[in-house]
Amino acid sequence: MNPQDHPNDENSDVGDATAERVRIFDTTLRDGEQAPGFSMDRRAKLRMAHALEGLGVDIIEAGFPSASPDDFGSVAEIARVLRGPTVCGLARCHDNDIAACGRALQAARHSRIHLFLSTSPLHREHKLGMSKQQVIDAACAAIERARGLCHEVEFSAEDALRTERDFLVEVFSAAAAAGATTLNAPDTVGYTTPTEIADLFTYLRRHVRGADQVIFSTHCHDDLGMAVANSLAAVGAGARQVECTINGIGERAGNASMEEVVMALRVRRPYFGVQTGIETRRLYPTSRLLTQLTGQSVARNKAVVGENAFAHESGIHQHGMLKHRGTYEIMRPQDVGMGETRLVLGKHSGRHALRQRLQSMGHEVDEAAMDSVFARFKALADKKREIHDEDLEAIALGLDPEAIGPWRLVQLNTNSHMGGSASASVKLAHDNGHEIGEAAIGDGPVDAVLRAIERATGTTLDVTQFQVRAVSEGGDAQGQAQLTARHAERDWRGNGVSTDIIEATAHAALAIVNRIERRAPATPPAAVARL
Ligand code: KIV
Ligand code: ZN
Fold first, then answer.
1. pLDDT tens digits, residue range 247-274?
2. How confident is the model at residue 528 (pLDDT cuts 50, 70, 90)?
């Protein structure tokens, strides 16, 4: 697709002196990391912290130092190495927590202690067993203690959205007087709505004593799927710090997703009239890094960073996109660091998109031939969910895109030991009637199988992506291996399915070798049996 002017290009984040700044407070390493399935070791946290610094976040909540020695160590290390953002640690309003947080943050260039205490009637009665006055006194004492141990103090009124408004005003007024410079009103249980939270922030800004000396902050959970909408509504009502996480990870249904908040503020800049300091082109790489570090991928249709966020399959949309990208895109994939818009060819696609893709691959198809190419494409698209460039190439060259072989897997054995290398042997049959056996060792069973297949077929595969996922449930679940490999300066994809994931990988590798060989038939191998 040729680059075209985008209707929202004027919404660039850079250099708008009139727009007020909203601080981005990232809590991926604290609220995000404490959710089941998202824990990270110290090295992973450090990598993530560097990525967040590169993204330009204002504050990184690096952990909860008194939660464990490991959390303490991670916060201390992040505080020592990051020079850009403010490094923040979480603490309850307890002496020990505050002291540990202060020690962990000692080496930070700029440090913040984030104190929290519940304020809602439900929490006061059932969790804390404290009166309103006791809550105010504990919060103020903690703030005063923390002030001497860091550069700035944030106070969070946990479960603020279910707290009596007048009491919240009292707590925040006392916290500001005690020296807190950021006042956070978290929707701890994801209960509020955009109108309600906007109303609350308007009320707080009007009634909290010393409101003009502090930053009001929003921290929304996604239990009812409104965390981003609620955060944006709070910004609309004057919040100037948004607490959020990459990919929206966090307790239960998660926190507000940073990429969604940031892009909403950017794409709708004239509406919100504020800007962040985020380098939006780092959003997608940072999201990918988190999925790699935690092993938890995002939904394909996830806003801003999902695989489908800039993909179009319907013929009507593709036609519109080819005329002007603004017809169906409100932001550019490049703006979030995602590369190009993808016109995905499938059964809903039309001739325009097919011709355009073939041209970009170097195949000029004249009008007469186009009818039959399009008919073959549609017939294949009815059977396959997605059509790849290899399929299109086969159609354009008059080859059969559904052909299988020439190689088939006849036998596979692997052997691996914990902490040691692995070995694999394969026996393959070729359509020319020959059988060949090969063995190889590798860093693990997958590597060993790939090496053995390379040796048997004589085709080198430089694997660039490898993914395994379950395609059915239960102990006998089928695993699908998806492999992308580079060969002769091109990317080739192959899939394999089996109850054994190593066998699925072998099928995926052979699917690639077969495609390569069908495209440029190799000299048939001699019959060798080395098994
Ligand atoms: O959700 C919440 O209330 C929190 C606080 C610790 C800020 O995460
Ligand atoms: Zn939270």
1. 999 999 999 999 999 999 999 999 999 9
2. very low
Give 31's DSSP letter: I
Indicate if the pLDDT at residue 4 is higher than 60.
no
Phi-psi region of 511 (alpha: psi -120 to 50; beta: other; left: phi over 0): alpha
> Binding residue per annotation — 219?
yes
Which residue has the least CA distance to atom 6 on ligand 1?
Answer: 116
Specify the pLDDT at position 521: 56
Q: Is the shortest distance between the CB of 254 and ligand 1 below 6 Å? A: no
Are both 156 and 222 inside the same structural domain? Answer: yes
Ligand 1 pocket test, pick from 188, 192, 220, 252 with the greatest ligand atom count within 8 Å of Cβ, gives: 188
Please state the pTM of the whole predicted model. 0.81
Ligand 1 midpoint to CA 246 (Å): 16
Q: Which two tokens stand for residue 448?
A: 């060993």
Which of 239, 269, 294 corresponds to the end of one domain? 294
Residue range 64-101, pLDDT digits in tens: 999 999 999 999 999 999 999 999 999 999 999 999 99
Q: Is the shortest distance between the CB of 219 and ligand 1 below 6 Å? A: yes
- Structural tokens at position 456: 């048997």
**Is residue 31 in contact with ligand 1, taking CB distance under 6 Å?**
yes
Clarify whether residues 268 and 364 are in a common domain.
no
SS (H, E, C) 283-298: HHHHHHHHHHHHCCCC
- What is the signed CA dihedral for 376, 380, 385, 391, rounded to 10 degrees? -80
**Nearest by Cα to 401 from 411, 390, 409:** 390
Give residue 316 CA to ligand 1 midpoint distance, Å: 45
Query: Which protein residue's CA is at the shortest distance from atom 7 of ligand 1?
Result: 156
Host domain of residue 479: 407-530
- Pair 365, 479 in one domain: no
Q: Ligand 1 centre from 241 Cα, in Å?
A: 14
34 in ligand 1 pocket by Cβ < 6 Å? no
The contacts of residue 141 (CB under 8 Å, 6+ apart) are 93
- Same-domain status, 40 and 174: yes
Please list all protein residues whose beta carbon sits less than 5 angstroms from ligand 2, which is an ion.
31
Would 36 be classed as within a structural domain?
yes
146-174 residue pLDDT tens: 999 999 999 999 999 999 999 999 999 99
Per the document, the length of the chain is 531
